[in-house]
């Protein structure tokens, strides 16, 4: 759409470009190759990019999505055809190999957390190869999307030889696509993601190695399961264990990981482009200063849900506690999908009519609480619009 718009409203870019006549350079340098002829190199400014460049970016994204989704579906399908244990699980559920492969692959790449089975990935906790196949799908669709896209650009440049694939990664500000990062930012982002995963995996193994949730798994399966769980804690939301059975320290760690944005990096981005701010932007910045921060809104939401669920918190305190509600709110805000669930065994007064269900903890909330959580999920998807809020509310 941007490419078509620029084509219709194209302007004379002579004042915004720098032209180099290669023929004149060859005449001044006799040793250079004179067979190159006259070649024009146009360096666009950041406000005017050729529509062909935007179209090239669109094609690159299309290739990326096809490779990740179709490739992931094919990899899962091949695994299912080769492993009898996984086939038995799907046969019991009455689910076809093709639909499971496509559904799980797209859900993993899109970081949705949905699976075609009620138990999520718990029934596949011993299928380590399947878990290892899904891990890169999750990373390529979210936290490592920018580095993978840059690698895709580099590969397409080598294959096609088009200069646009070289120009786009070198001038991310000119293209205006936020997922295009320079090499330094990609390196720091990858280092951050890997360090987070390693930290979570070590803590998970050290705290949950002998837990009831992992008692039927051998050492190798526990390590792969911990790695899978750590990758999902950022945004994907798939799980191989009942989260309510994990220790509180691990759950607090997951809350922190869920709260962090996908592109959290050890290297902050340069704000040079914001150094010369116009009067209109200054007025907008002043307004943003008086808007509450992200964490403040989440605290308000937790208070509101505690009010709507106050009766259940009194009669069913083991299920309805502040920590469980906070975990559910942060998971909804980060669009992760993790849930501690609801257990009839934790009821203070035993109820014979109570039945455990496969849906999350919010399934037991009141309608008012569910509506509030819906708003939190939408707010989480639009949080980029309020990242600068809360400046005037910092305590000094």
Automatic annotation (TrEMBL):
GO terms for molecular function: sodium ion transmembrane transporter activity. GO terms for cellular component: endoplasmic reticulum membrane; Golgi membrane; plasma membrane. Pfam families: TrkH (PF02386). It is a multi-pass membrane protein. It is found in: Membrane. Keywords: Ion transport, Membrane, Transmembrane, Transmembrane helix, Transport. The chain crosses the membrane at residues 61-82, 94-117, 129-149, 187-209, 251-268, 289-308, 320-342. The keyword Glycosyltransferase does not apply. Belongs to the TrkH potassium transport family. HKT (TC 2.A.38.3) subfamily. This is Uncharacterized protein. It comes from Panicum hallii var. hallii.
